[in-house]
Amino acid sequence: MTNQPTGSKxxxxxxxxxxxxxxxxxxxxxxxxxxxHPELNYEEYYAAALLxxxxxxxxxxxxRGIGGVETAFRATLAGGGGDGxxxxxxxxxxxxxxxxxxxxHNLIAISNLGAGLGAKAAIGSLPGxxxxxxxxxxxGGGGKIRxxxxxxxxxxxxxxxxxxxxxxxPIPTEIxxxxxxxxxxxxxxxAYHGKASHAAVAPQExxxxxxxxxxxxxxxxxxxxxxxxDVRMHGIITDGGKAANVVPDFAAANFMLxxxxxxxxxxxxxxxxxxxxxxxxxxxxxxxxxxxHPMYENVRPNSAISKSVLANATAIGMHVDVPxxxxxxxxxxxxxxxxxxxxPSFALRFAVSETPVPGHSLAMTETSRTxxxxxxxxxxxxxLALTACDLLSDPELLMAATEEFRARxxxxx
Length: 413
Known about the structure:
Order of helices and strands: HHHEEEHEHEEHEEHEHHEHHH
Oligomer: single chain
Helix content: 25-40%
Strand content: 15-25%
Number of strands: 10
Radius of gyration: 24 Å
């Protein structure tokens, strides 16, 4: 490795990779600790403190409770090579009700923690700043949206993160400009107010709010055939009356609406609103529409960054699968999409099992604490650490990522 310029890949490949490997035991211990203390969104006090304490102990300057979010944090390490870009690694650590870490956020936490600690081995010769952001409440709370609104991502030039992906590690690099990953999603509560009466003695005196909810469901089912194939609409009845002999005066349903882009999703929202209003007119009930879930944007991919991730994953010997048609996203939704709409971003999806395992399940909860899952998370930490160093040290890579980001948004440089 002689005669290599400061900050070149060969000058930090071994040191960064070894730094992560040296922390393997600590990272696995941190993952299992978070896994055994599952916390719901905006309640992740234990996990946030555990991660922030670790970063502080390793020399990062840590700010807690950033953006007015108590369980968010920012850990910063300045490069020793002068002014330069800022690269952020996003850690998640919230769990799901009843099933705990059935989405493997304990693994997201350590893969980005490990990436930050690994990149520290090279930061002394690199320009710019490395940031590890603790981003709570991905599971429905929109923690990243709150941090975006608070200006936490201002000045960040590129973002990296990760997510478990069952039994595959796809890293697409040939991504059409119009391709969108994951689904944009928003949620609403459709509440109907009717009039109670005795269901047998005087049913004519009542206005059945439950009938309105039933018409809402049947109307949405009829709407499906007239929407794009990528649309998903799914809901539950949360309130439907208390007794069969009483005409329900209140009933409500919560729905999540999804599409591959926000623009078409807004049309879906309007169509469902019309169905909901129609159900109210059919029954005479009064409709109240309430927000139930913040708007999660679709993920904007970035092939310039993904090519660096793929090169680094290959360099460390990480197994990479052939990407499926449609790229590296999933049919789910994430507030990482909101970040990807404002800054060049890429999240590495990594295998945690040998066979398919469904997300948001007890099976994934068990999988996310296995040796195989931890090996995948640590390999991911190495690949992300090296990619962060690439983005800090290579102005051409960062420029390519930025130009692609603008092209995907229709804003040519």
